[in-house]
Amino acid sequence: MTGVTLSSADLDPRRRRILFRCWHRGIREMDLVFGQFAEKEIASLSEAELDEFETIMAEEDNDLVRWIMGTWPVPERFKTPMFERLAAYKPDFEYPADSLPGKA
Fold it and tell me: How far apart are CA 56 and CA 79, in angstroms?
């Protein structure tokens, strides 16, 4: 998935704004994680869940990618069901060694 496929026509303004921000993070890896999560979940999130999601979104992308990929421990404040749901949308950023150019 490389971009928005969900129509925002039926979303309220807050959810539209969040959906747009999810696909325009600044780091492609985070576009994919947040965008895929939002595509599936944004319409059904409660106001409290949206608040928590926006709090997570406010963090630096470089930190988020490390927490989601497991290269840094997740801070206690983000050891929540919402963060776990978000982290479950991590795309496969690794290429199999035999698929790299020049490898057979």
Answer: 11
Torsion angles phi and psi, residue 47, rounded to 5: -60, -40
Domain 13-91 has CATH 3.40.50.12780: no
Residue given tokens 């497991």 in the structure block: 70
Indicate the residue type of 75. Answer: P
Residue 60 is classified by DSSP as -
- Which residue type sits at 96? P
pTM of the complete model? 0.79
| pLDDT value for 93 | 57
Task: Taking residues 7-35, report their average pLDDT.
Answer: 90
pLDDT tens for 64-79 read: 999 998 999 999 999 9
Tokens of 10: 């039926």
Sketch the domain layout of the chain as residue ranges.
13-91
- The encoded tokens of residue 36 equal 């895929």
